[in-house]
């Protein structure tokens, strides 16, 4: 995938209002806005352009500063035959984040979650293993900007106070978690650069993050 450049957008979406699809973005890309598909700091919307289904995503700078990283990963996986979202416009940057427009992949998400039966979970586990094998084959092993390494997570100074608060409500559970946190932090002190493979992983390989075709077990989208 060639280097992706972002076009400056004059519209501003203040932090905490990602549930609103910016009217300027709709005008710039000639979009008819559809429903919001997520309620996270990065919003995702259904939309249409000239009757063609598209997906709009917003990455706020505070939570996802490295928006080019998922584009690079998706492009590499697409080169290996995986159906991943493909941009149809250059990203639009604003004061607080970046807007992206993608071609809508076929399929539908599995909702409600109660329909996620054991057989489907096992099939998804096998699919996740295939995905991670493909991710390793891309050769992408650098850390995504704005995300943290395991060592940074277990030594986060805010972690222990939160575990202590949890201890007040669930003493036995919290004690186990505190011992694990202390042990993990100690291990990383002795192994600052562990000799372990680094690959791209999918942190939420769940039904609501996948698109399913009508044929059972047929993978077609993320």
The main sheet orders its strands as: 1-5-6-4-3-2
Q: What average pLDDT do the residues reach?
A: 85
SS field, number of helical segments: 6
Radius of gyration: 20 Å
CA(first)-CA(last) distance = 19 Å
Shape: globular
Query: Low-confidence parts, pLDDT < 50 over ≥5 residues?
Result: 216-222
Share of residues in helices: 25-40%
Overall SS class = alpha+beta
> What share of residues are in beta strands?
5-15%
Query: Major β-sheet, in short?
Result: 6 strands, mixed
User: Topology as H/E string?
Assistant: EHEEEHEEHHHH
DSSP summary, beta strand count? 6
Short description:
The protein is 34% helix and 14% strand.
What labels describe this entry?
alpha+beta, disordered C terminus, 6 strands, 14% strand, 222 residues, single chain, 6 helices
Give an account of the 3D structure.
With 222 residues, the protein is of the alpha+beta class. It contains 6 helices and 6 strands, in the order E-H-E-E-E-H-E-E-H-H-H-H. It has a 6-stranded mixed β-sheet with strand order 1-5-6-4-3-2, with helices on one face. A hairpin with a 3-residue loop joins strand 5 (92-93) and strand 6 (97-103).
Secondary-structure topology with pairs:
Blueprint (H helix, E strand, L loop, with lengths): L6 E2 L14 H7 L2 E5 L7 E6 L2 E9 L7 H12 L12 E2 L3 E7 L14 H21 L11 H5 L4 H11 L1 H20 L32
Parallel strand pairs: 1-5
Antiparallel strand pairs: 2-3, 3-4, 4-6, 5-6
Helix pairs in contact: 5-6
